Amino acid sequence: MRSKTTVRNLVNKIADQEGLFSHDTEEMDLKPLIRKWRGTFMKDEIKNYALNHLYVTDPTMNKKDLQRNLKILNDNIDVMGTTDGFQKIEKQIGLDDKILQKSSTVSALKPMKDLDPFLEKKETYEQKKQKLDEERDRQLAQVEDLMSKLKERKEKRREKMTKLRQKRKAKRNKKQEEELQKLEQEEEEEKTKHDQKVKELEEKIQNIEAERKRKIEEMNANTKKIEKPHFRKIQKNYTDKVLMPNLEQKKKKLAMIRDMHKPIDMDEIFEHKKKMDEIAEKHRKEFEMNRPKDDFTYKKYETNWLKNVKEYEYQNKEETEKKEGDKKELYEKMRSYGDMVKEMHWPTVSKKKQLEMQLLKQSLNHPIKNRLNGSTLSSNAGNRRSTENLLSHGGFQSDREDEHSNTVKRRKIIWKENPMVPKPKPKKTAQVVDWLLERRKARDEQDRDGPTYKKDIVSDWKKDIEKANLNQKEKYEYIKEKTRQLEEEARRKEEMAVLGQGGAMDDNDKLLIFESIKAKLSLMEEFNS
């Protein structure tokens, strides 16, 4: 019966797909169509079987899971019919092994064997349609019955799960209530214990306070009964008001005398010196930090002419540096050339000259001694020399030796100065200067001549420039040199005054730098105008 219904379903699907049974009279051969659609319908049967089996095994499956499994089956529909393909699908969907293989062999392939006897019967369109309708109704009824059963099973499962949840919840609530009751009971016990301890402590404190008051009252009563005699009171007043102050004064005097006779501690002196040095260093640093604020600023006197002067100085400095660099390069070239020539053409030494030098050295080591004349010497010196001569030469010389000694003269050798040997530096001779005498002379000259810087320096420079008939550039060079000399003189005197070598600076010396600045400003105004 099952095989016939399966074949009918297959025929019904083919008819729907190919559009058959559109007329009553014409009959068609369905074998080629069945062969054509056999594989497709078999795969559809396997797909439906897999979905039904999944739904039966897991009734709680929702719509999303069903769509996902259907998509997996549609994607792998090409590999259906093979063992590897079925295993792959079963792993992805989550079915047991070999369920799809059994369904393909039993429910899909078996009806194909009973297809020929079914197709041999000749039935009309009405009969076929009626059978198909009956089969469809029956299948729909089966599906409805299956769905109702699945629904009932799902409801029962849901009720069971709800009951289980309620039971677990009740157990959990009961356990929580028991724990809460236990905790509340423990808290009450602790509270009672704490209150009891507090009461005991309060009682102890009250007892201690009462005992203390009792003892104080007893002590006051005893002191009232015992009174000191009058002479004791007078003695105590005398010691407190007379003896003790005198004793304190004596102690202070003794301590002062002890401090006066105590030797001086050098550590204290060094500590005081160190402290004072730190204070002086601190004041010096503060003075140095605040000093730039009070310095004289030259930027506000800077004009275009002064900028041109600075630029001209910068250019001259670059030219001088360039000239010095060229001189150094030329000197290096000459020195390297001299070294190279010296290495390539080393001077030769003549053997003849060497022999002459050796002879000269020997003659210097053994000089020719002249015969002494007694008449030229004094009597004492003559006697001494004659005895020495006699001891050394036996007292006699031949005439030939006498003649030879009179004719031979010593030759004075003058050596040429070697230019390669560096000359020794001349020794510095100590110059003794009496500064007090020099300062007295300078002060006398100053008193005699009067102040030297009271005159107008700018007017003197202008007169010198007019006399010399200088052009603009020469005027600039002249003024620059004069102001530089004036500033150097002022700076030198200031440094000497600071070092204590030149005495104190007078007012004229202090005004030198200001005179130079005034001279520059007045001449700049003149040139700019």
Low-confidence runs of at least 5 consecutive residues: 104-121, 374-406, 451-455
Distance between the termini: 135 Å
Number of strands: 0
Please give the radius of gyration in angstroms: 70 Å
- Principal-axis shape equals flat
- The helix/strand series, from N terminus to C terminus, equals HHHHHHHHHHHHHHHHHHH
Helix content: over 70%
Q: Determine the structural class based on helices, strands and strand pairing.
A: mainly alpha
* Biggest sheet character: none
Keywords: Coiled coil
Biased composition (Basic and acidic residues): 175-200
Region (Disordered): 147-200, 369-407
Biased composition (Basic residues): 154-174
Describe the protein's architecture and organization:
This protein has 529 residues and is an all-alpha fold. Among the domains are: 121 residues, no CATH class; 61 residues, no CATH class; 83 residues. 77% of the residues lie in helices and 0% in strands. It has 19 helices and no strands. Helix 1 packs across helix 2 and helix 17 runs antiparallel to helix 19. The two termini are 135 Å apart. About 11% of the residues have low confidence. Keywords: Coiled coil.
